[in-house]
Amino acid sequence: MPDQPSPLEAKIRRLIALAGPMPVAEFMGLCLGDRDHGYYTTQEALGAAGDFITAPEISQMFGELIGLWAAAVWHRMGSPANVRLVELGPGRATMIQDMLRAAHVMPEFRNALAVHLVETSPVLIQRQKQTLANHDVSIVWHDALSDVPDGPAIIVANEFFDAMPIHQAVKQEDGWRERVVGIDASGALAFGLGADALKFFEQTLPANVRAAPIGAIYEWRGDAQALEVGRRVVRGGGAALIIDYGHVTSDVGDTLQAVRAHRKSDPLAAPGLTDVTAHVDFQALGLAAESIGARIHGPIEQAALLRRLGIEQRAANLKKVAPPDKAAAIDAALVRLMAGGPTGMGTMFKAIGLSAPQLATLPGFDG
Ligand code: SAH
């Protein structure tokens, strides 16, 4: 007996029956954001008990250093009396809580900031409200960055862009065709190809992608989020720090992946019950922000950013005041955040800074 389809799979099958196979981007958007059955709409995904662990969930050091980064940026902005500290996709609010703790020792910065959280998941908004219940700074929630009032802003986003839907195209003899999700002869959800080659597509691709062999997969995201972040930092004279896993140059490769209970799973299995993400193309993200006038810093590896922001010193200081049984956990967290190699967080994750053009350098990026 096959498993019962998840409620979202039933909906996706109805949509395909009505309108035909759907682009991967539409499928991914439904998997994560469907208002009734989407993964982020219904699940508290993160943390040791959830499906995956993010850097701020590994150690308080991560958010604290990002808090110091924000304070240093605020100084470089000329210490404006009011600054919006914006986080995109705050998850369980662990990072912003650690940032605010770090900001506590800098009263001028703390008094200047108002927190704006951009979050679409009702489950996670509830969790964020619980986490932040005892804070005395102003905290406002928004559905989209475009709803945050204009003005000087410092924007941070960790593992946010990987959750933005990607399109995929597959190179064929007659050009690139969009990859779609349909139903195969056995009745299962399956990947397929759009009926026609994408028009005016090849010319928009970087040379290395154009030269790819038949069968190669190219991924791209809509630019709306990157453009809005760029617009904000340019208009408000501020900066953004985006950290995520991905590649620094646009290239071919299928990076669509699903994770459930800390294990990789099939992106087409159990839609709505698994986390479906894809690598961030930092070159494309940077080009989009640059096109609207933002200055780009990096991308650099997460390990390089954290080292320059002083994570080793921070770990040593924490160990001095920690009970002996906690010291090993601090060391383990440090190793995990900084780890190199193809699967290590320190190298797989990259950080890119976007700023107003007048900010020539950003902390952590200037060596
Ligand atoms: N930054 C957190 C959580 C990462 S998970 C951490 O590092 O632990 C991705 C987060 O983005 C979740 O909070 C999810 O609900 C949110 N999210 C996903 N799509 C979104 C969208 N379109 N707009 C706003 N938030 C979104």
Mean pLDDT: 94
The distinct bound ligands, ions and cofactors come out as: S-adenosyl-L-homocysteine
Tell me the span between the first and last alpha carbons. Answer: 59 Å
Structural class based on helices, strands and sheet pairing: alpha/beta
- The number of distinct β-strands equals 16
Could you name the ranges where pLDDT drops below 50 across 5 or more consecutive residues?
none
Q: Count every helix, treating DSSP H or I runs of 4 or more residues as helices.
A: 15
What kind of sheet is the major sheet? 8 strands, mixed
- Described by the principal axes of the CA atoms, the overall outline is globular
Strand content: 15-25%
Percent helix, as a range, is 25-40%
Q: What gyration radius follows from the Cα positions, in whole Å?
A: 21 Å
